[in-house]
Amino acid sequence: MAKRTVAQVLAEATGHLSADAITGAVQERQPDVSPSTIYRILEEFEELGIIVHAHLGQGAAVFHLAGAVHGHLTCEICKRTFEIPSTYFDDLSRDLLESYGFELDRHHVALSGTCARCRALESAPSG
Amino acid sequence: MAKRTVAQVLAEATGHLSADAITGAVQERQPDVSPSTIYRILEEFEELGIIVHAHLGQGAAVFHLAGAVHGHLTCEICKRTFEIPSTYFDDLSRDLLESYGFELDRHHVALSGTCARCRALESAPSG
DNA sequence: ATAAGTGCAAATCGTTTGCGTAGGC
DNA sequence: GCCTACGCAAACGATTTGCACTTAT
Fold it and tell me: Are residues B94 and B109 in the same domain?
């Protein structure tokens, strides 16, 4: 049962795993698990509320156990991503709820922008 | 020159247009313009700073003339999107800059969450 | 025998790329 | 002749789906 192995991989993971990374980790223990099976299991786990996924950039979604929800920043230039405490969203979240009745999901999509390093490189051309 | 027609379509558009919608609108005036040409032109316009694109959900990106930058909300349930004034991001933007040196891009990706209507439907099941 | 779990290949969607060609200079 | 602007078809990456098979119960 691949389901159990997927659960173990997710439980042991420290950070965010793409479906592809999960497939790789599972295949180290069960070589013949196919990507479609992984996607099906992830979908089921998500419906059960065990895991969540987030979109950090243009690429593949990442998955991790539900629980401590945090925000994400993605640099549009270097594509690195950063985790931020979800408290940064407290005020915005309240404002959006008051103005639009919109309930913000703090972790599902990363905020886009330019990281400190890339901002420095932009202002100092040949560095 | 398809470039001129694309520019007209973008200038006349009120809201956000997907590449596919732009292709359709252009083809009403020049039937044989191919999608790849549209993408190439959009890429050039974006490099020139004439237009910007945003990701509003899981689907296709949307394009519009650069200028008044606003934020976007996308409902994860009904997939509708809403524009919000970029001032909503002022505080968060300042905080991220102070804490991480991260410069927020307010329009590039939509904030994800649940809209008022879908929240109401969730709490009132058979409505 | 029935339902659930799965592998594989093909399909999908948005977007990009390679290649060859037509026109402007 | 060379460069730009294309059209077309194929490639692409992430994900989904159809279908046949195997396994538990």
Answer: yes
Please indicate, yes or no, whether residues A45 and A90 belong to a single structural domain of this protein: no
Query: Is the Cβ of B52 closer than 8 Å to some Cβ of chain A?
Result: no
User: Minimal Cα distance from A55: which residue of B?
Assistant: B58
* CATH number for the domain that contains residue A7: 1.10.10.10
Residue A127 has pLDDT above 50, yes or no: no
Verify whether the Cβ–Cβ distance A113 to B91 is below 8 Å: no
pTM of the predicted model, to two decimals? Answer: 0.90
Helix/strand/coil (H/E/C) assignment for every residue in chain A? CHHHHHHHHHHHCCCCEEHHHHHHHHHHHCCCCCHHHHHHHHHHHHHCCCEEEEECCCCCCEEEECCCCEEEEEECCCCCEEEEEHHHHHHHHHHHHHHHCCEECCCCECEEEECHHHHHHHHCCCC
B43-76, pLDDT tens digit by residue?
999 999 999 999 999 899 999 999 888 999 999 9
Interatomic separation, CA of residue A64 and C1' of nucleotide D21, rounded (Å): 32
Query: With contacts defined as CB-CB under 8 Å, which chain B residues touch A55?
Result: 58
| B57 and B118 inside one domain | no
Domain ranges, residue B84: 68-127
Q: Domain ends where: B42, B66, B90?
A: B66
Put simply, whether B40 touches A (Cβ < 8 Å) is no
Q: Work out how many CB contacts closer than 8 A connect A with B.
A: 91
CATH code of the domain covering residue A81: 3.30.1490.190
